[in-house]
From TrEMBL:
Keywords: 2Fe-2S, Iron, Iron-sulfur, Metal-binding, Oxidoreductase. The keyword Phosphoprotein does not apply. SUPFAM superfamilies: 2Fe-2S ferredoxin-like, CO dehydrogenase ISP C-domain like. The keyword Metal-binding applies. It holds the Pfam family Fer2. This is Aldehyde oxidoreductase iron-sulfur-binding subunit PaoA. PANTHER family: OXIDOREDUCTASE WITH IRON-SULFUR SUBUNIT (PTHR44379), XANTHINE DEHYDROGENASE IRON-SULFUR-BINDING SUBUNIT XDHC-RELATED (PTHR44379:SF8). It comes from Geodia barretti (Barrett's horny sponge). Gene3D superfamilies: 3.10.20.30, [2Fe-2S]-binding domain. Signal peptide: none annotated. Residues 54-137 form the 2Fe-2S ferredoxin-type domain. GO terms for molecular function: 2 iron, 2 sulfur cluster binding; metal ion binding; oxidoreductase activity.
Length: 212
């Protein structure tokens, strides 16, 4: 991966970002909590007092990326289609755009160790947090025990849901290395396999648990 520019990007609050920008549209499409934030100033393109877009820094898989985002830009959009200010594409397409409404888990990533749906998180809310995608789980060429177990059990069919399941499984085992079957089911309850392959996913997590 090319070296990313180390200069820190804008750390702009959600309140400043959304203030006055398409008030009717934004208010209808984001939760009220999105409007809560600090009042830090920012170097951003503005319309009056409203910030239309801003350059923010995201830490993704241990690498800093400076990306320009709009108020409505989701973390998933940045991961899949974003580019940093040096012109390099982020190009982390493991998180899948499937339902785009926080129901299927295909876009699951970890933010500060907790699983989130990247399609439901604004990119600007991921500032100052550690973002881990499925691409960042392996240690170089050494696969994570979860990844090895998914291969061992052939725990994939179409493959669209697989990255989300791997991320959720990794997050679960990082907190509980010896989960019961019920705890595994709860840990993966936010992910859907439309191929009906869930039982094999459960077996893979049990195997990975033994390795860990």
């Amino acid at each position: 991966m090319p070296d990313k520019e180390k200069k820190k990007g804008t750390n702009i609050s959600r309140r400043s970002f959304l203030k006055g920008v398409g008030t009717g549209t934004v208010a209808a499409t984001v939760a009220p909590s999105v409007l809560i934030g600090s009042e830090k100033t920012a170097d951003a393109q503005q319309v009056g007092d409203a910030v239309e877009s801003a350059t923010i820094q995201l830490n993704i898989n241990g690498e800093p990326y400076q990306v320009e985002v709009e108020a409505r830009t989701t973390l998933l959009t940045v991961l899949r289609d974003g580019s940093d200010t040096s012109g390099n594409n982020v190009d982390l397409t493991g998180a899948k755009l499937i339902c785009d409404r926080g129901e299927c888990g295909g876009c699951t990533v970890m933010v500060d160790g907790k699983t989130v749906y990247a399609c439901m998180m604004l990119a600007m809310d991921a500032q100052d947090k550690q973002i881990t995608t499925v691409e960042g789980i392996a240690d170089g060429d050494d696969l994570h025990p979860v990844q090895e177990a998914f291969i061992q059990h052939d725990a994939l069919m179409c493959g669209f849901c697989t990255p989300g399941f791997i991320v959720s499984s990794t997050a679960l085992l990082s907190e509980n290395t010896k989960p019961t079957l019920e705890e595994i089911k709860v840990g993966l309850s936010g992910n859907t396999c439309r191929c009906g392959h869930l039982s094999v996913h459960l077996d893979a997590v049990k195997t990975a648990s033994k390795k860990m």
